[in-house]
Design a protein that fits this description.
Layout (H helix, E strand, L loop, with lengths): L9 E2 L8 E3 L3 E2 L23 H16 L6 H14 L6 E3 L1 H10 L3 E4 L2 E6 L2 E7 L4 H5 L6 E5 L2 E2 L4 H8 L6 E7 L7 E6 L1 E4 L3 E5 L4 E6 L6 H13 L7 E5 L8 H11 L4 E6 L7 E4 L11 E5 L6 H11 L4 E4 L7 E7 L5 E10 L15 E2 L13 H5 L1 H4 L1 H11 L7 H8 L1
Parallel strand pairs: 14-15, 15-18, 18-19, 19-22
Antiparallel strand pairs: 1-20, 2-3, 2-6, 4-21, 5-12, 6-7, 7-8, 8-9, 8-10, 10-11, 13-14, 16-17, 16-21, 20-21
Helix pairs in contact: 6-7, 7-8
C-alpha cells in the first residue's frame, strides 16, 4: 500500500539524541514530522466530583495559593496539558503554536534563515555544518565555529531562543559574533537571510565503481533527493559495482520518506507494518516493482544513533536481504507518532502505533543488530560540504573504509542477496 492512501499523516520520531537543529526551526533530533490533516480533537470529560477531579482541584489550589511565585490559570493549564501528554511515553508531546510551526517548517525541506545546522554548546551554539549555497556558507562560516551572540545579544543557554532570533523573513539581516579556533578575537558576520533549501542526502563516488550516499535525516524532500543521487551515481562513466548507504547518526524523520527510499531499492516485499488501536494506526506498506540500483550490492552503515525512520529503512533492507548492515546496534525506537492539530495553532504529537520490520520484528528498546559488527568508537562525522573531506573520507572514516573493503573482497557480479549471506 502506498503511503499516500493513509488518512492520518504519520511520522517515526527520532529520540532526543542531543539538540541538533538547523536554523529556521529544524529540530531533527527530537522532532520529526509530517504536516498533518486537520482533525478535530475528540471531547474529553472528567467526572465532576470524582476522586481524580478532587485531587486535581486540591493541587491547583495549593499551587496557586502557596507556590513561591504567582502562577496564572493559563500557565497551570499549559503545564498540566504538557505533563498529561509527556507522561505517556518519551515521544508524545504537546506543541504550542511556535513549536508546531517549527515542526512543520522542519519537514518542508525549505525555510527562510541563514542555513546552518547547529548543536548546543556551553553558552554558545556550535556550527555542525553550513548548508551548501546558503547565506552562512557564502559568508564563510565553518563547521566547529561557536556562535556566541546574535544581533549583539548573548546566546547563553537558551538555544531555542537563539534559533528563533536567527529566523526571519528572506532579505532581512542578522549579525552573528563567532568564536573560531585559532582566532584571538571573535569574528563578525552580517548575513542576509534567504530561502534555504535543506537537502538531507549527499552522494558521490568513493572509487570509480563504488558509490557513497549519506542520509542525514528524513524530511519531505529526502526521497526525491535520494532518487536524484542514485540516478547521478548510476549514469557515470564507470558502471556502479556497489554502494555504501550511511545512516549513522540519522535520528529519523518522516516515515513515508524512509518508505519511499526503501521502495526505490526493492522490487517487491513488505517495507514496514504497524499496529495500533485505530484503523488508521494499523497499516502495511509494500514495495512496488522497480529497483533504481538494478541489483547493485549495498552495504548500510548504522550505529547507536541510527533511530526511528532510519531503522525502518535499515530493517526493510536487511529483512528483504537487499543490503548488508554494518556497524553497531541501532537505537531501538519502534513506535509511530501522529501529529494532531488542536485549536489556536497548537497540536499534540501522539504515539499511535508500534511498527514492525518485514519479518515481524519489534525493534523497540532492542535495536537492530548489524550483519557485521565493527569494533571501536564511532568515527567523528566528516563535513561533506568540504570537497577535500570527500576525497579523503576513506582515510578519515574507518567505518567507510571497512564498507569499501567489503566490496573489494566480493566479486562485482555477486548479488546483494549473496553478499548479505556472506556477511551473516
Amino acid at each position: 500500500m502506498r503511503p499516500t492512501t493513509r488518512t492520518l499523516a504519520t511520522l517515526a520520531t527520532g529520540t532526543l539524541l542531543g539538540l541538533l537543529v538547523a536554523i529556521g526551526g529544524d529540530v531533527r533530533a527530537s522532532r520529526d514530522t509530517l504536516p498533518a490533516t486537520n482533525i478535530p480533537p475528540p471531547p474529553v470529560t472528567i467526572a465532576t466530583g470524582s476522586e481524580d477531579s478532587r485531587l486535581l482541584h486540591e493541587v491547583v489550589e495549593r499551587v496557586k495559593r502557596e507556590y513561591v511565585e504567582p502562577v496564572t490559570d493559563a500557565e497551570l493549564m499549559g503545564h498540566a496539558v504538557r505533563g498529561l501528554v509527556a507522561g505517556l511515553d518519551p515521544y508524545s508531546a504537546f506543541l504550542d503554536r511556535d513549536e508546531y510551526e517549527e515542526m512543520r517548517v522542519s519537514t518542508a525541506g525549505s525555510y527562510p534563515g541563514v542555513g546552518i545546522e547547529v548543536a548546543a554548546a556551553h553558552d554558545a551554539i556550535r556550527v555542525v555544518r553550513p548548508f551548501e549555497q546558503s547565506p552562512a556558507a557564502r559568508a564563510g562560516l565553518r563547521a566547529g565555529d561557536l556562535v556566541v551572540s546574535i544581533d549583539g545579544e548573548l546566546v547563553g543557554d537558551n538555544v531555542n531562543a537563539a534559533i528563533m532570533r536567527m529566523r526571519g523573513p528572506a532579505g532581512s539581516a542578522v549579525h552573528l559574533s563567532v568564536r573560531r579556533n585559532g582566532e584571538v578575537l571573535p569574528l563578525e558576520f552580517v548575513l542576509q537571510r534567504a530561502q534555504v533549501e535543506v537537502h538531507s542526502v549527499t552522494a558521490f563516488r568513493l572509487t570509480p565503481r563504488i558509490g557513497y550516499v549519506r542520509i542525514a535525516h528524513f524530511s519531505a524532500t529526502t526521497a526525491q533527493d535520494f532518487r536524484r543521487a542514485i540516478y547521478e551515481l548510476t549514469t557515470g562513466p564507470h558502471r556502479l559495482a556497489g554502494v555504501v548507504i550511511d545512516l549513522r547518526n540519522n535520528p529519523g524523520g518522516v516515515l513515508e520518506a524512509a518508505v519511499e527510499v526503501a521502495d526505490s531499492m526493492l522490487d517487491a516485499g513488505t517495507i514496514v507494518s504497524a499496529d495500533g488501536r485505530t484503523a488508521e494506526a494499523r497499516f502495511q506498506m509494500s514495495a512496488q516493482p522497480g529497483d533504481m540500483l538494478a541489483g547493485v550490492p549495498a552495504v548500510v552503515l548504522v550505529n547507536g544513533a541510527s533511530a526511528s525512520a532510519a531503522e525502518i529503512l535499515a530493517g526493510a533492507l536487511q529483512d528483504n536481504r537487499r543490503a548488508a548492515l554494518m556497524g553497531r546496534k541501532t537505537f531501538g525506537k519502534g513506535s509511530v507518532q501522529t501529529i494532531m492539530p488542536l485549536s489556536q495553532g497548537r497540536a499534540i504529537k501522539l504515539t499511535t502505533s508500534h511498527y514492525y520490520t518485514p519479518s515481524g520484528r519489534s525493534i523497540d528498546g532492542r535495536g537492530i543488530e548489524p550483519d557485521i559488527a565493527l569494533d571501536g568508537p564511532d568515527p567523528t562525522p566528516v563535513d561533506l560540504t568540504d570537497q577535500g573531506a570527500r576525497a579523503t573520507l576513506v582515510e578519515r572514516d574507518a567505518d567507510v573504509a571497512a564498507a569499501l573493503a567489503t566490496f573489494e573482497h566480493a566479486p562485482a557480479a555477486r548479488s546483494p542477496r549473496r553478499l548479505t549471506a556472506r556477511l551473516r
